[in-house]
Amino acid sequence: MPVVTVNRKAHFNAAHRLYNNEWSDDRNADVFGKCANVHYHGHNYELIVSVTGEINPQTGFVMDMKILKDLIKSEIEDYFDHRNLNEELPEFKTLNPTAENISVVIWEKLRTKIDTKLALKITLYETPRNFVVFTGN
Amino acid sequence: MPVVTVNRKAHFNAAHRLYNNEWSDDRNADVFGKCANVHYHGHNYELIVSVTGEINPQTGFVMDMKILKDLIKSEIEDYFDHRNLNEELPEFKTLNPTAENISVVIWEKLRTKIDTKLALKITLYETPRNFVVFTGN
Amino acid sequence: MPVVTVNRKAHFNAAHRLYNNEWSDDRNADVFGKCANVHYHGHNYELIVSVTGEINPQTGFVMDMKILKDLIKSEIEDYFDHRNLNEELPEFKTLNPTAENISVVIWEKLRTKIDTKLALKITLYETPRNFVVFTGN
Amino acid sequence: MPVVTVNRKAHFNAAHRLYNNEWSDDRNADVFGKCANVHYHGHNYELIVSVTGEINPQTGFVMDMKILKDLIKSEIEDYFDHRNLNEELPEFKTLNPTAENISVVIWEKLRTKIDTKLALKITLYETPRNFVVFTGN
Amino acid sequence: MPVVTVNRKAHFNAAHRLYNNEWSDDRNADVFGKCANVHYHGHNYELIVSVTGEINPQTGFVMDMKILKDLIKSEIEDYFDHRNLNEELPEFKTLNPTAENISVVIWEKLRTKIDTKLALKITLYETPRNFVVFTGN
Amino acid sequence: MPVVTVNRKAHFNAAHRLYNNEWSDDRNADVFGKCANVHYHGHNYELIVSVTGEINPQTGFVMDMKILKDLIKSEIEDYFDHRNLNEELPEFKTLNPTAENISVVIWEKLRTKIDTKLALKITLYETPRNFVVFTGN
After folding, report:
1. Does the beta carbon of F77 lie under 8 angstroms from any beta carbon of chain E?
2. Cβ neighbours of F99 in E, within 8 Å
3. Count of structural domains within chain A
4. What is the CATH number of the domain that holds C115?
5. Tens digits of per-residue pLDDT, C61-92?
6. Could you give the ipTM of this predicted complex?
7. For E18, what's the count of Cα atoms within 13 Å in the CB-facing half-sphere?
């Protein structure tokens, strides 16, 4: 059967700051600039989840988009939306919540919920001009 | 010569319903939900056709975009636009018109018209939030 | 208090055909072209609902966007989504479902649910290139 | 001379929470839901500044867009970007930083810097699906 | 009958430079900066034509969008596309081709072709971040 | 460490014409149509620069986006913006400034400035409907 990638968009809003706990405040300010602001700032994160696999000949689906939509809602949107990533999510207690690291965390959370016969890719827009892609490698 | 991908966007509007002829109406309703609505619903399909190959040193083109634009118009837009996919297009008499299957049909229609030295990829948006990609594998 | 317009986007997918019941099929085909296709075609309708009024000094809101979002979902998205407008919605039994007429129907449905101190405007995209605006006049 | 509106887009990222200082935490949670999260959340705010007036016959400009761009940068982007609106900006010490109130604050800051012969309108996207418009009335 | 605005998007690509023939080159460079570059630069202009009037009760249309689309093509796209505005279009022999002035020229060209019972508005994007609006006043 | 792609958008406006110096004007007109217009036309080029590599465990970055943004500004935006590609840039004295060839030139200019452990990909939109991708192969 043909191998197709299905993609679903979602979004969430969150606050964060960039900060390495092992560095001084001065070095954090040097490296991260205003992104290290102690009072936090925030983003509308736009997310694209991409799942690749063979078309099921009975349904015509690679994966039912309603199931994928619900999975993204329960695992990602409900978990990240209107949160302070540094303060409220245990994944970022020591991990710096850069777009790169957030995309890896999202990939890991979804990977456990999606059939391993299907490849998984995460695209995450931090702003309309900055985005990252993670494929699990 | 450098290998570049050229991409051209197009669009068409069509009606469809998701339905497996070999299943009962109840099973179709179970699996496809309101997408199985007997009266059909519809979409604005946004299409991106991607063609990859070496740059021709005389023209600077991988493929003349005007030719690609005209080809997409005659082979895809004129064929799909303002159609009921289930009722009017023979490809979907027994094939369920999911975005996945439509992308494969579009790929097959264009593949016969484009030089085989050029790779072909189809991206099809069923809605601004759902889209599929098919590369011919 | 300052007068501000708050706007909320939503969307639904539907099938329709353009058709005047009082005309012959030939005249319908002449006027509406392929939009009169007897098998229907469809669109992803993108909707913007705009509500104008004074800011409430206690909440800072003109209207709570969560309430507006829920109202659009229950009154418009649930009613129009995945429907055949001509066949399934009584408003269009004799009214031609052009974008213009759909925008008026949406305005009328929401007008009864929103405080009359607030002005109401409907913007409806039939395709990314065609859209209409109705303000109730 | 013809009267034209010129529009310039800009953006900034900020953290905020919705909160009325005169209410209990419970009432704030009731009214503002997860937007009242004590740890803040954030947005990419997209801003459109619209200036209306007669075309200057010598330049063909209503207002030099480079001057407008620089004004938006110095007065708005530099002031709001990567800030916590509740904690760091005096305008929001007692004013709830809803999109409505932010649009009024932006309008007031720019109004003092732009020739009063020119009308001023602010459009502010809090998310791609929620936006507000303020014209100074 | 309800009064609705119908909007149609179009686009064209053109070269221009900003220049006042009555000024010295130095003054042009002072006022227009790199936009005065003697070798020209260019833009993808995105155009929205908005027509407001009563819905025709027989068609459900304010104005047939196919007719509007064809009119924009013949009067605007074919006239402006792939042109050097300063060198090739007589309207800009002495008129500086700013976005403001181009919007007025487009309005005047279309105004003569559209029923005067219908109001006409032009929105012209010079870049995704800069756009102008002209309503004929 | 995980391998992630970071992407940054930028843009510039330029004039060009498509032309092969070794051909007659007639042959140029035949092959390039109105794109060969001797007076030039122009575009808003939208650029996405994509950089792939391992996340640095100390910063959480693949590459500091501020550095990438500044690099794109100094090497690409400042070099191409408001230029006539054929007349003013030495790269296109004999190379036809098609989107394909421009993407290769951009790639080559950035490749010398970015750590060779990082892969580099260029996506260049000539119009919202035409774009090219070059990965260096």
Report:
1. no
2. none
3. 1
4. 3.30.479.10
5. 999 999 999 999 999 999 999 999 999 999 99
6. 0.95
7. 24
